[in-house]
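Consider the following input, taken from an annotated entry for Protein AF-9 homolog (Parascedosporium putredinis).
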Amino acid sequence: MVDDAGNEHPAECFNKVVYNLHPSFDNPVQTFTKPPYACKNEGWGEFELTIDCYYTEKSKVTVAHDLNFQQNVYDVVRPVSFKNPSQALQEKLRELGPLPTDDDRPKKKGIASKKSSSQKYDYEKIADAMEKLEEDDLLKVIQIINDYKSADTYIKSDIDAGEFSIDLYTMPEILTKTLWDHLSKKGLVN
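Applying the prediction step yields:
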């Protein structure tokens, strides 16, 4: 975890971290229950993996990570949002910096926030909605993504395997808004 000053701290707000590695590994799903939750394996090849960070027995934050060898060492800092954090979790998070308060949040949806407008979209709802799409709608969403993506948008597409994945947190504002509006018209987000 990184605090508001950029200093690293043990990720003690999580009680379990599960790495979902490439299926070619002998043990592709690896679980760690103590910080630093380091997953150390040897192998070859580059692949995308997901890391499930549990802050309660059932509640988790999933982070997509592109494992590559373009640099010897690289760090990727991702913002993490917790849904309905417990008081204990909030106390741990306060050690890293201030938390938003009710006074900081807009009172109604129509009121402009001081934060970036992309924060008004719920990325978990977007992800859940995309999983519910039929094939034709999914193709439309892929077209929207390709039309509005930026150079920073992380997309992995394997046409032969029929797989398409996107890191929602790398989408530019215009793509997030367009995707949200499309899913909203379908009645999948609100």
